[in-house]
């Protein structure tokens, strides 16, 4: 029994000593280490090891210099900031007028008008623009071309033409400018008649016709806004009642730069307006039934035509 225990102890001690000693290398590992050592010696003979050490030394020096210069810049910046703070501390402290006990200045109000109200430029026309006004030989029947039998406009995205004045893409007869030949020269028959006093059929027969934009007399909202003028809105009936042929004639002739000619045009327009009023009264007196029928038809019109003449 005693011999068995001693044998076991010897076995344990031998296993411990073998585990604590360095592991034995195999033949492959020994050959590999020999090749590595040989390559290292060969690189040393070529001088590669010395070059590597030299490069590493240069990099470490450059890194140290960069760190030193960076730290010096930080120190310089900090010193400048400290100097600035010291200069500010010497200056008197800024305070508001209320803390200093000063009286607040009075608020200046230029006028009592609404500051949100838009302002417009003065609207004056030259004699060249007066001479560019159009005319017609025959009248144009309104609300027929480009309308159906019920008085509704015919809109068409494919075949329709967009009018520069009303900006509606509809069917019907439109103008074509012979000068610019652009979309801004497209006016429907009703707009060119009411706004400029011209007949679209006569225009299309004229090979030298120029649109109102090229003649600098366009009164659409876009063109007037570009010039700083107020848009006119629907003022055809007001222009006709004042004795002018169209809206363009009313605007240009009444606001031309020559005051004497503008006064003469206003006097002529007043005479035309009085003549039209007399003719309308005589027509009503001679044909009261026809007038009543027209009023009834106007009341029975669709809602989109009730305000049209």
Q: What structural class should be given to the helix and strand makeup?
A: mainly alpha
- How many extended strands? 2
Report how far apart the termini are. 138 Å
If you average the pLDDT, what whole number results? 82
Largest β sheet strand count, sense and barrel closure: 2 strands, antiparallel
Instruction: List the total number of helices.
Output: 12
Strand ordering within the main sheet: 1-2
Low-confidence stretches: 1-6, 11-20
Helix and strand succession? HHHHHEEHHHHHHH
Rounded Rg: 50 Å
The percent range for helix content is 40-55%
Overall morphology: elongated
Strand content: under 5%
Element layout with pairings:
Blueprint: H1 2-20, H2 27-46, H3 48-90, H4 97-100, H5 127-131, E1 161-162, E2 169-170, H6 189-196, H7 200-204, H8 221-226, H9 236-241, H10 247-254, H11 259-286, H12 288-299
Antiparallel strand pairs: 1-2
Helix pairs in contact: 11-12
What key attributes describe this structure?
309 residues; mainly alpha; two-stranded antiparallel sheet; 2 strands; 1% strand
